[in-house]
Specification:
The protein is α+β, with helices and mostly antiparallel strands. It folds into 2 domains: 342 residues, no CATH class; 93 residues. It is built from 20 helices and 4 strands. A 4-stranded mixed sheet has the order 1-2-4-3, with helices on both faces. The N and C termini lie far apart (84 Å).
Length: 457
């Protein structure tokens, strides 16, 4: 691979540096969200559940990121820094690998693609979150680079590295493996000579091996998944509206951004059928396109089958190829600046939504609960099983203040943000039936702290 020129590498380095500062700001200022708290809880242990046992309770779990995150938590504590720093480092590494991929497919001005990649709203939101997404994306980008090298020069060592990175992908987030299916299937189009057939067989073996290696963990963990794992209540909007909000923070920005990205994807795919495009670039672009198609197709089928909606970490593996193909489709000098500016502005506008959203804050709500507890009072964690863990991880002393009977004068109901209105109403109705009356209601961090006092005789 040729050495990048200063003209292309300097803007990318500056962008990555600015991106790191933005992520540091978000890391330090945005409160921990419930999925992050639940992952953090794995390293602490609750109710005699071991760390592997806790991981197995998590829907769609994969264990690797928990163990990578653990040293950061042990050193930095149960804090935003301890939970999120590994994700930030992987996000920066992902940007570096993304630039390498952009240069590998000979993309003009890779820094434009990098800026769009960094600013896509749901990617930006995951970049600072203490979750597996960025680690999985880092390994996926490393695997993708190996795959493209394999198609150009089929070597056993490259195939082995490709299999290794895919295994790390699937053990970090099983959805990160999905692009590899499309890479392999769409490579069939270019299998003509002996060299291409060798690349095909090596890619086939490297693609099949990781799911086989993941299968023992999957079979062990699947029966243990908790059906009561907390999930965000539906807003009541149609699924497609929720998906658009997920992509861009706002449905209208989501519509515009999605339409432009889909049009660019189609145009980029069409360019692979032009003989004027070098065969190596046509192969790379078409296989990347296959990665997007396989990811989206599998997600749509599985989500429809199980009646679920897309989530950010599920769609994230399709982002790098989508951005690369989008910028590759607007390489004409007349269109490139305008189209890139429109895409980047839309992405930046959508990114403002997750950056400014600090409404979910269980840690602050926990402090409010502590303040409302006085003599002859106890706390009820509304919604059973996992609710108390969300509060106890910030205030372990609350475990000794939980209501084990209802002879206290005052009861404090701790309602976390994922509690549905029906569960909250049931809890309040129960205590009203025991002659408790509401004396105070404090909305905090999208949750509620409800103080109920025993009525006099």
């Amino acid at each position: 691979m040729t050495r990048p020129s200063p003209r292309t590498s300097a803007p990318a380095a500056l962008l990555i540096s600015a991106y790191a500062l933005l992520l540091l700001f978000a890391l330090a200022t945005i409160p921990l969200r419930i999925p992050e708290i639940l992952q953090m809880a794995a390293s602490r242990g609750f109710e005699s559940v071991s760390m592997p046992g806790w991981i197995a309770l998590t829907p769609e779990s994969a264990p690797l990121n928990y163990f990578v995150q653990l040293p950061f938590i042990l050193v930095l504590g149960y804090s935003r820094w301890g939970v999120r720093l590994d994700s930030l480092l992987f996000a920066i590494g992902s940007c570096y690998l993304f630039v390498r991929l952009a240069k590998q497919i000979r993309l003009r001005d890779p820094w434009i693609a990098l800026l769009l990649f960094m600013l896509l709203p749901f990617h930006l939101q995951l970049a600072w979150a203490g979750l597996p997404a960025e680690q999985a994306l880092f390994f996926l980008l490393a695997a993708t680079e190996c795959f493209l090298r394999l198609t150009e020069k089929p070597l056993l060592i490259t195939a082995a590295l490709y299999a290794l990175f895919l295994t790390l992908c699937i053990y970090t987030d099983r959805y990160a493996f999905l692009p590899a299916i499309g890479y392999l299937l769409f490579l069939f189009r270019f299998v003509q000579g002996a060299e291409q057939r060798r690349a095909m067989w090596l890619a086939l073996g490297a693609t099949v091996l990781p799911p086989l290696l993941f299968l023992p963990y999957y079979l062990w963990a699947k029966p243990q998944v908790s059906p009561y794992w907390p999930s965000q209540p539906s807003s009541g909007a149609p699924d497609y509206i929720e998906s658009l909000r997920l992509l861009a923070g706002n449905e209208w920005i989501g519509i515009a951004l999605s339409a432009l990205l889909v049009a660019a994807l189609i145009a980029s795919c069409w360019s692979t059928f032009r003989a004027a495009t070098p065969i190596s670039k046509r192969t790379s672009l078409f296989c990347l396109f296959g990665g997007v198609i396989s990811t989206v197709a599998v997600l749509l089928v599985t989500d429809f089958w199980f009646g679920e909606s897309l989530t950010a970490h599920q769609i994230l593996p399709a982002v790098p190829a989508t951005v690369l193909l989008t910028i590759a489709a607007i390489q004409r000098p007349i269109l490139r600046p305008l189209a890139a500016a429109v895409l980047i502005l839309l992405a930046a506008a959508g990114s403002s939504f997750p950056i400014l959203d600090r409404s979910e804050d269980v840690q602050t709500e926990t402090h409010v609960v502590e303040q409302q507890l006085g003599p002859n009072s106890c706390v009820v964690f509304v919604s059973e099983r996992f609710a108390k863990i969300l509060f106890e991880i910030f205030a372990p002393d609350l475990k000794g203040r939980e209501c084990l009977n209802f002879f206290h004068q005052r009861v404090v109901l701790a309602v976390h943000p994922y509690v549905g209105s029906d569960h909250e109403e049931n809890a309040e109705s129960f205590f009203r039936g025991l002659s408790f009356v509401e004396t105070k209601r404090i909305p905090e961090g999208r949750g509620q702290v409800v103080v109920m006092q025993q009525a006099g005789p």
